[in-house]
Amino acid sequence: MTEQPLLNEIRALIKSSGPMPVWRYMELCLMHPRYGYYVSRDPLGREGDFTTAPEVSQMFGELLGLWTASVWKQMGSPQFLRLIELGPGRGTMMADALRALRVLPPLYQALHVHMVEVNPVLRERQSATLAGVRNIAWHDSIDDVPEGPSIILANEYFDVLPIHQMVKRENGWHERVIEIDPNGKLQFGAAADPTPRFDVLLPPLVRAAPVGAVFEWRPDGEIMKLATRVRDQDGAALIIDYGHLRSDAGDTFQAIARHTFTDPLKAPGQADVTAHVDFQALARAAEDVGARVHGPVTQGDFLKRVGIETRAAALMQKATPDVATDISVALKRLTDTGRSGMGSMFKVLGISEPRLTGIAGLSDLERAGGAS
């Protein structure tokens, strides 16, 4: 049996301090300084555990580059712009975006690139991918990025931020916890006492959930940081992730290893542990601090609006038949609404300073009221 040092450590913590909230378990799985999933490996690609949109096709990053150019023009084409990416993977998306931006020399000259990345393995990959880029810096947190007009890109970033899970009982909502069963395995449980007045701030849809329902929430700190930054310093943020348009009950806590779903309690630190993003909660928090919200819309709709079909046709025209087929498959994967597609599962939300009344691919008229 393979050694599982993080599992042993979590067991010891539960034995000494009692059941562990789901958020703390998720935080340890992903960010433990020695055994955390995101501090020790490159999880991407065929040899890794999952594939992100930038790894599917160059078109994704190129279109985000053109989206950046469009927003920069709406900002009045400032002579200095910070292009910030949160959780930038292997640097693939940024490399593709910058290639598209080279056709606009005034913007390309204005750019200062900032990569927010804690994983040393991925930092090395990003550094190699972006070797020719001038004015680039790495940071552990967006707090460390200097002030100034900014465009922030966050693709599959919010889904790994730790969640609280609450379970509805007859007497109220109880924090969901991880405990140890009689055989020494980890299992889900619930705090003995309900969280006082938890339901007061809940959306009506969640408040009406039946007994036994699970509700997930993330603290607003990270989204409020982005919203405050673009509100005060000019600019916009684009958040792309899988999740739901409306706040609702449901258990989405999951683990993926080798491109397959696995038990999130089985091998802590050795699988990617995530949960769906509540886009209504993100939008509400951004508006609460005075930023303007655009969308959310589905990834398929967003990419079509910013021209992915035209870009695919242009690439296919110059390609060999085999490569043209690959481009067609990638287009389908990024925009399709079926099970194998990312088009409807992934959503796109824009946040900007209040004067930007409409941004490419998103508009205030498209605030979602429908289900995911």
TrEMBL record:
Q: Which InterPro entries match?
A: NDUFAF7, NDUFAF7_sf, SAM-dependent_MTases_sf
Q: What keywords is this UniProt entry annotated with?
A: Methyltransferase, Transferase
Q: Coiled-coil stretches, from where to where?
A: none
The record's annotation in Pfam families points to:
Methyltransf_28
The protein depicted here goes by the name NADH dehydrogenase [ubiquinone] 1 alpha subcomplex assembly factor 7
What is the organism of origin for this protein? Answer: Bradyrhizobium japonicum
Q: What is the lineage of its organism?
A: Bacteria, Pseudomonadati, Pseudomonadota, Alphaproteobacteria, Hyphomicrobiales
